[in-house]
Amino acid sequence: MQLMTPQGKLIGSAVDSAQNIVRFAGIPYAVPPVGSRRWKSAEPSARWGGVREATYFGPASIHPPGSDSQGLYRNLLGLQSEDCLYLNVWTPEPQAEAKLPVMVWIHGGSLTGGTGSAYDGTALAKKGVVVVTINYRLGILGYFAHPELSAESPHSASGNYGTSDQIQALHWVRENISAYGGDPDNVTIFGESAGSLSVNHLMASPRANGLFHRAIGQSGGNFFPMPHLKEACRDEPSAEERGHKLASAIGKPSLEELREMTAVELTEQVWKSGMIPYGSMAVVDGWIFPETVRDAFANGRQADVPVIVGYTSDEGSGLADYGVLPPIPETPQQYEDRVAACYGELANAYLEIYPANSPQESVFSAYRDGMFGWQMETWAKQMKTVTSKAYLYYFSHVPPGADQMRTTPDGSIIRPLGAFHAADIAYGFNNVGQPGWNPATNDDFSATEADRVLADTMSNYWVAFAKNGDPKVAGQPMWPAYTDADRHYMELNAGASPRRDLLPGAWDIQQRSAEQQALEGQFGGFDSVALWARLG
């Protein structure tokens, strides 16, 4: 199909002829960030002459070595390039007068991996929305601060280039999506893990104001402390100092030398240095982030838009393969000793929530609650500082095969995956049963009828929310908004079940831990993982 857009003519692919779903892939939304434009804020892509073929996905951002092997955020095509700022559109009505709600998906992958092209928007488009998936700069290419970069910036800022890409993609949506049948005044941003983190970032950034109207965050937020560009924060050096140390560690201390390296060489050298977190963190830069996300939300300066936020019941199970969990004590006594060392006066209260009789399960639960549950419920709680409502969910459905015992690669943990980190993505997209839909299992397990019902239910809520800002679906349970008093949430398991008071005591102990760390001036994160890692 040929379509005339503000950028020029495009040829798309019919991906579901029966329901007239058309996909336009590999659309440039920003100037390629290559050469002297490496580490520059995103700028709009130019028009093209003639007809552009939009039947192939654009390349992903350069990934660290081996990251494509991660089951959760695979780059299915394997194509990578520094020239990566492309997006994809699925639409049921590619005509300007359609004015359908728009859903913009931001992929996960720790801000170091993944690609928007790994997600299929066909099933959501069938429900009457226009779906957009985007690529953005990752790792050292997307999140790198350096004194020379700040000096050349008109805003005296550096870092956050991946976030600037996401903001530019939303500008592209505002200026172009009408031609694809979308309504630029009804845009929902949604994402999982680092994609959810990015949604959280965009809500806090004044640079994204007015570019979206609803938000969905799945297992990721940034209410932790954030590094500052030019000043040390708590026990952490400034982002510029960290960036300079990273450049020196790879033997290229100057900006000129860094830009002379190929993107692949640069990414590999940073990965080998062992300092990859220094190249994959958003920073308070005075421009994209004038303040921390936490402060923006606490003071009501986030985007005043309705949100759905939530997490899965076994967030740490799949991630344990990548060594992100703190050490698991071998005995209950060792566990109690570690808790006492970490939490001091909070130890007894902590043990009531995470008891010593099963150290492994308590560590997994604490990781889930500290790294994800506390973040997502804090996000919901902080919406009381604005007028828009928040809706909380808890995804506890176990996909096929994820109930079987398995061993982590290092042999240290034996347990089922359960409702693992990223398990909810295929259900929200209504893509269960498609190849790769259940990526954390090695076997090819087919979707069951229960999977299909839940996927239809969950995607119905997502689409209704995108249409109206309220997850209200005829024939499905009513989803009450979150309040501090009732702590309403929707459990997504065998269908959908409205409940209240999610995991009693878990948020409270994590919040008390956060306050304790703040008083002690620690930077590492408002969660049990940071404390355990510090003493581990």
Describe this structure in words.
With 536 residues, the protein is α/β, with parallel strands linked by helices. It has one domain: Rossmann fold (3-Layer(aba) Sandwich), CATH 3.40.50.1820. It has 17 helices and 16 strands. The protein has an 11-stranded mixed beta sheet, with helices on both faces. Strand 1 and strand 2 form a beta hairpin.
Q: Descriptors for this entry?
A:
single chain, 536 residues, Rossmann fold, eleven-stranded mixed β-sheet, three-stranded mixed β-sheet, 17 helices, 32% helix, globular
Shape: globular
- Largest sheet features: 11 strands, mixed
Ranges where pLDDT stays below 50 over 5 or more residues in a row are: none
Structural class: alpha/beta
Share in β-strands: 15-25%
Q: For the record, what is the CATH homologous superfamily label?
A: Alpha/Beta hydrolase fold, catalytic domain
Strand elements, count: 16
Number of helices: 17
CATH class: Alpha Beta
Mean pLDDT: 91
The strand line-up of the biggest sheet is 3-4-6-8-7-9-10-11-12-15-16
Instruction: For the record, give the distance between the C-alpha atoms at the N and C termini, rounded to a whole number.
Output: 58 Å
* Overall radius of gyration: 22 Å
The name of the CATH architecture is 3-Layer(aba) Sandwich
The number of domains is 1
